[in-house]
Write a structure and sequence with these properties.
alpha/beta, single chain, about 140 residues, two-stranded antiparallel sheet, 4 helices, three-stranded parallel sheet
Length: about 140
Amino acid sequence: MRMQRAAQHDFGDVTQPYATSNSTLTGYYTNRQFYDGAAGIVGVCDVTDPSTLVTVEKWVLDRRKTVGNKIPVVLMANKCDTVEEDEEVSTQLDSFCYNNGIARWFSSSAKDDVNVEEAFDFLADQLMKNENAKSSTT
């Protein structure tokens, strides 16, 4: 599994790293303690391999068991640089996100840096909204 801390944003006194995952779930990074306290989730699927959505679904569900259901989740549909845009795939990803409580998906290419920053900016915006909602209720 390729795991990386992709970005770190400062939300006042709360600083949280984000982690991304691909389809292989082995080793240290699947340890629930690693995710304890995470503020957001970025799931990554491969648009050339639909079976990766099943893995992302399981991975997100497991992460939510650790960190709770109320944290924002975004999906990056990676390798958009290798396929033509497909309305059927877009509809499938829309449905997948709706059914799994994922805020939004992004057609992305890590290789060509397509929508990577946009996905993390969106997640950061969602985190800020959550943080503002928490502070307004206390």
